[in-house]
């Protein structure tokens, strides 16, 4: 029962479109009508400025981390008891936080590209692997200035780091599934990259 409740909480929390409400409250702007029209923290930074972009990023990371932390704190073990496989309950809770961000209950099941919320989930589950994936992100970003390329590359590297650092099959599979989701959510970016029309990252400093 605890796992089921946490899954519901994770999905609802993940569904909160932070960039959308922050834009409307602080700037009177609907981020879906500007920039890339995405409700993630990258577009929030582009459209709303660095400070509000960082606030969006922190909140989007938190809505991935908080439900997973709660799953450990509350010792959710429904799936573990059913299957005998440890770690499944936090994974499932994390999956629904990420699904909520990508397919928001409050935006007709549309949403962001799952990167920041994924960071929150994996920061709790596999911090060392996430740290190395973050290094990959920043190295690629420094070279290319494309957030999309950096996010996709980091997502692909994450399950590899999980496998070698933790030797945990469920976590590795989870990392692989989320990497695929992130790639799919970046489908339009990939098309623009192939067409040579993808925008490099710039920020509104106001």
Q: Which stretches of 5+ consecutive residues score pLDDT under 50?
A: none
SS field, number of helical segments: 11
Based on CA inertia axes, which overall geometry fits?
globular
N-to-C SSE string, H for helix and E for strand: HHHHHHHHHHH
Structural domain count: 1
Largest sheet: none
Number of strands: 0
Portion of residues in helices? over 70%
Query: What is the end-to-end distance?
Result: 47 Å
Rounded to an integer, what's the Rg over CA atoms?
Answer: 17 Å
Strand content: under 5%
Give the helix/strand class. mainly alpha
Task: Describe the protein.
The chain is globular, with a radius of gyration of 17 Å. Helix 4 runs antiparallel to helix 6, helix 7 runs antiparallel to helix 8 and helix 7 runs antiparallel to helix 10. It is mainly alpha-helical. It has one domain (2-195). The chain contains 11 helices and no strands. It has helices spanning 2-15, 18-27, 41-48, 50-73, 78-83, 88-102, 115-125, 127-144, 147-166, 169-185, 187-195. Helices cover 74% and strands 0% of the residues.
């Amino acid at each position: 029962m605890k796992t089921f409740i946490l899954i519901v909480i994770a999905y609802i929390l993940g569904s909160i479109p932070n960039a959308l409400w922050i834009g409307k409250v602080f700037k009177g702007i609907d981020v879906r009508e500007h920039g890339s029209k995405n409700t993630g923290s990258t577009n929030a930074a582009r459209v709303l400025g660095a400070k509000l972009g960082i606030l969006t990023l922190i909140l989007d990371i938190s809505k991935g981390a908080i439900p997973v932390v709660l799953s450990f704190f509350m010792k959710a073990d429904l799936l573990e008891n059913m299957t005998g496989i440890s770690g499944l309950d936090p994974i499932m809770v994390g999956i629904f936080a990420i699904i909520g961000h990508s397919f928001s209950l409050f935006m007709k099941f549309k949403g962001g590209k799952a990167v920041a919320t994924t960071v929150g989930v994996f920061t709790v589950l596999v911090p060392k692997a996430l740290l190395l994936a973050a290094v990959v992100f920043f190295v690629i970003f420094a070279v290319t200035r494309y957030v999309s390329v950096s996010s996709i590359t980091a997502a692909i590297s994450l399950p590899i780091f999980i496998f070698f650092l933790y030797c945990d099959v469920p976590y590795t599979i989870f990392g692989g599934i989320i990497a695929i989701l992130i790639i799919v959510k970046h489908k339009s970016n990939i098309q623009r990259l192939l067409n040579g029309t993808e925008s490099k990252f710039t920020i509104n400093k106001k």
